[in-house]
Amino acid sequence: MSDDILISADRLTVGYPLGGSILRKSVLKAVNEVSVHIERGSFFGLVGESGSGKTTLGRALLKAAPITGGSATYRDDEVQYDLATLDGAALKDYRKRAQLIFQDPYAALSPRMTVRDIIAEPLEVMGLTASRQETDERVREIAARCRLNLEHLRRFPHAFSGGQRQRISIARALVSGPKFVVADESVAALDVSIQADVLNLLKELQSELGLTFMFISHDLSVVAHTCDHVAVMYLGRLVETAPTRKLFAMPRHPYTRALFSAIPSLDPDDRGTAQKLEGEIPSPLNQPPGCKFHTRCPNAIDRCKSEEPQLKDPGDGHEVACHRWRELLEAVPA
Amino acid sequence: MSSLIDVENLTLQFRTDEGLVTAVDDVSFSLAKGEVIGLVGESGSGKSVTAKSLMHLNAHNAVYAPQSKITLHTDAGEVDVLSLRTARELNVVRGGAISMIFQEPMASFAPAITIGSQMIEQLQLHGDMSKARAKEISVEMLDRVGISDPHKRIDQFAFELSGGMRQRAMIAMALSTQPKLLIADEPTTALDVTIQAQVIDLMKDLVSEFHMGIIFITHDLGVVAQTADKVCVMYLGRIVEEGPVREVIRHPKHPYTRGLIHALPRLDDLESPLTPVPGDIPSPLERPPGCVFHTRCQEILGDVCKTALPHDTQLDATHRVACHLHDKKEASA
């Protein structure tokens, strides 16, 4: 593992047992043999529909979902942890190094706590500060970075708008001084006008504090503007991963292309020309054989129905899991 | 095109412990038959409250100002919506001539009653028909909105359907009474992009098939560009700009509309930084004097914006904007 990789997952699988008979236990694989490498200081985007396993992957990397197969490693300048076996004191230590920002800023903040108490809670729970004075100092410092003032700290969450609440959640996630932050749909619940503000704040904090972000989103245009590396998930598998610019210049997987064409165009004269994806993502309980995407893929052939394509790097760092991507790309005029 | 509904000077306040809170302030617009109007704005801009007023569906603490008037034109004549009182009178705007689709499809179906009985119940309430006939219509509608196996689905519960399916079922239910006006309150916001595209397509087809008017409430300008004929941009209870969708999106005249468009992350331009509309929408308890947008406006002119309410300026027959920037141009021209 090279020095500049912070999180590395190798064939990581998250499975949930579902009961069934003793001989034939069925297992729901929410994340299925996924390998990702997240560089230090990067903004790693994870895209997919609901049910694709992106949240579960994020949680597994935070050791908040059970890792049932493969391995995942966290390594910074001080420590190295094997996430699959992490427990006890090491797990506690990992909690302060890896944090989560939730989607819904209305549900994520306790209505009965002041903003100061909300932000201070991680410090108190993890025992990171020696005195109340020190706690207050840390809270004020991180609050200022998230553009919250002293007056805000005394109030309760109900007095804040969605954008302000999300800034409070961000401050709470960052107060323990994490190196790795998973932002799970952190702007999905916000208005467009506020969304850009929160995204800019995340970028700023990343460069000031040297954070590494995993940014989970279903919105490709948001990912395009914030992330430097993107991975696309479908039904628990990675189907394509590449540096943002490469991916957006020429998406290789038919699923990624379909996601692109589904974004409503701002041009009123460009209505309904895009290729629309039929149907919905299959249930993870009832996964199709072969390529997981073949049931909705407009380009599927017999081979796709029986043989599952592997994620391969053709040599330029733009990995794709599709049998036909080369010929499909040639068929589409650039 | 003949008018379907006319909203004139709609002003609505809510009586709360902290005093009267203005949610909608002097809103006027009209919708023709078969027209799709997009109501755009941030949360708190009053778009949902405006739409609910059309069905007289706001909470009991709502106070309509006396000059407010909503007129619905039906085949049986004009209906003054705000004067309706009893449940029987209200039937015409609640599910009769007007139907509504809500944002959260899980919350809009009763969880312990099958989809079918909910659809049949409302059909029997609004039309004089037998249960068998109502079921027949419901199955037809489910089939029409692209739900496979409608005979089986009709006996299922909402939790057995996926998000996209539920929203389709919601649309089927709203349309089965053949309303003249459909209010769609953020119908695609909770859906994935791929499913959103399917639902938008479906709604476009249905407009042309049933020839009804639609009020499409959304905060996503992309969705508006794809569906609406006309756009009203709302901010803090006021319509700040109204015009044909092409005009408003290509040549936005109000600084707020411009801000909304610039805040959208564009896929065709990854280099440009994201520009938020600075600040937050003020609390309705602290409505700014003068132009409601002046606290966040980037093109503020000075005291006039802070003290005087801008009038509607008619830029051409269909495009109007309420901003002092355009007052000035008119005066100097």
From TrEMBL, chain A:
Enumerate the InterPro entries for this protein. Answer: AAA+_ATPase, ABC_transp_ATP-bind, ABC_transporter-like_ATP-bd, ABC_transporter-like_CS, Oligopep_ABC_C, P-loop_NTPase
Q: Per its record, what are the GO molecular function terms?
A: ATP binding
Which ranges carry the ABC transporter domain? 7-260
UniProt xrefs under Gene3D superfamilies: P-loop containing nucleotide triphosphate hydrolases
What membrane topology does the UniProt entry give?
Answer: Peripheral membrane protein
Location within or outside the cell:
Cell inner membrane
Coarsely, its chief localization is: membrane
Q: Its domain of life?
A: Bacteria
Known PROSITE patterns for this protein? ABC_TRANSPORTER_1, ABC_TRANSPORTER_2
Q: Which UniProt key words apply to this protein?
A: ATP-binding, Nucleotide-binding, Transport
Which protein family is it in? Answer: Belongs to the ABC transporter superfamily.
- The name this protein goes by in its record: ATP-binding cassette domain-containing protein
Automatic annotation (TrEMBL), chain B:
Show which residues constitute the signal peptide: none
In its UniProt record, a GO molecular function of this protein is: ATP binding
**Which part of the chain is the ABC transporter domain?**
5-261
The question of whether Zinc-finger is a record keyword is answered with no
- One Pfam family per UniProt: oligo_HPY
tRNA-binding is among the record's keywords: no
Q: Which UniProt keywords apply?
A: ATP-binding, Cell membrane, Membrane, Nucleotide-binding, Transport
Localisation per UniProt entry: Cell inner membrane
Membrane topology summary: Peripheral membrane protein
Q: Which InterPro entries does the record match to this protein?
A: AAA+_ATPase, ABC_Ni/Peptide_Import, ABC_transporter-like_ATP-bd, ABC_transporter-like_CS, Oligopep_ABC_C, P-loop_NTPase
Protein family per UniProt: Belongs to the ABC transporter superfamily.
Q: Which NCBIfam families match?
A: oligo_HPY
Protein name according to UniProt: ABC transporter ATP-binding protein
